[in-house]
Amino acid sequence: MLPKEISAKAPPVKIQGIKTKLVPYIARHIKWDGKGKWIEPFTGSGAVAFNIQPNKALLADTNVHLINLYSAIQSKRLTAGSLQDYLFKEGEKLRTIGEEHYYDIRKRFNDEGSPYDFIFLNRSCFNGVVRFNSKGKFNVPFCRKPDRFRPALVTKICNQVAWLGKVLHGKDWDFVCQPWEKTLAASEPSDFVYLDPPYVGRHTDYYNQWDEAAADNLAIKVRQLKCGFAYSMWRKNQYRENTHLDQHFADCKFIDIEHFYHVGSSEELRNAMVETLIISDENFIPDLGEDKKSSGDLQIALL
């Protein structure tokens, strides 16, 4: 069974749509015996899997840099100690040289793909946005804070890596870079699939292009799964409602929760919204009169 009392911890990577604050809410509503694999076709920051911590997992993403980072931590090629040395060294260069050093690191990362450089860029780029151009090159500008890597931030990031290293130790987890279609095809009846795809109508430039046709195709495949699933998606914000949900999941169990996203490339993507968690009928645990709470309320209560 999934743990119902989770004090969620943030993973090493900041990314738009990160689910750290929603993990307690997600775990509380899913019923699964844990005998199969926990599968995520869109792993992203990994916040859900890293906090739920199943014994077996298949964690996939088309962003090879995310997969390389998690694999490096899993294999101990990247540790809290080695990352601390790296961040202090490169952070000092950033402080003395300025934004020119950020763009030197960005060029090196786009040429070589180092997971160390990926963390550096993720924590010193504009608003923590993870964005790549059509050629797969990281293209987010500098945050304009040369003193970004102060000791407190370096310690925080390294503690997150150390925590993730402990989570991964002894776990039967596979990190793979592959399209979602292949990941869903690998699911078996005893598995559980958690899906946090790019939100249709929102950040579609995350790594691969994502449009309504892709979202529709995914929804159709999700409804055909032989195992349990949970599907995260936005329902509405102050600007509009998401018609995709009624089109594909009108007959499913779901629970709404208010949430605020702080990471995004524009002000329109950094706002309060109603988030929906859609869960297969046999895996659904109803909310006991707490559906009006926000994710922040839930986190405080569980801590």
Q: Largest beta sheet, briefly?
A: 7 strands, mixed
CATH topology of the largest domain: Rossmann fold
CATH class of the largest domain: Alpha Beta
Count up the helices. 11
Strand arrangement within the widest β-sheet reads 3-2-1-4-5-7-6
CATH superfamily of the largest domain: Vaccinia Virus protein VP39
Low-confidence residue ranges = 262-267, 290-303
Helix content: 25-40%
- Strand tally is 7
For the CA atoms, what is the radius of gyration?
19 Å
Measured between the Cα atoms of the first and last residue, the distance is 20 Å
Write the CATH architecture name of the largest domain. Answer: 3-Layer(aba) Sandwich
**DSSP strand (E) fraction?**
5-15%
Supply the helix-strand structural class: alpha/beta
Helix and strand pattern: HEHEHHHHHEHEHEHEEH
Oligomer: single chain
- The overall number of domains is 2
General form = globular
Please, what is the average pLDDT?
A: 88
Walk me through what this model shows:
The protein starts with 22 loop residues before the first helix and ends with a helix. The chain has 303 residues and is α/β, with parallel strands linked by helices. Helices cover 38% and strands 15% of the residues. The longest helix has 18 residues. Helix 4 crosses helix 5, helix 4 packs antiparallel against helix 7 and helix 5 runs antiparallel to helix 6. The chain contains 11 helices and 7 strands. It folds into 2 domains: 168 residues, Rossmann fold; 88 residues, Adenine-specific Methyltransferase, domain 2, CATH 1.10.1020.
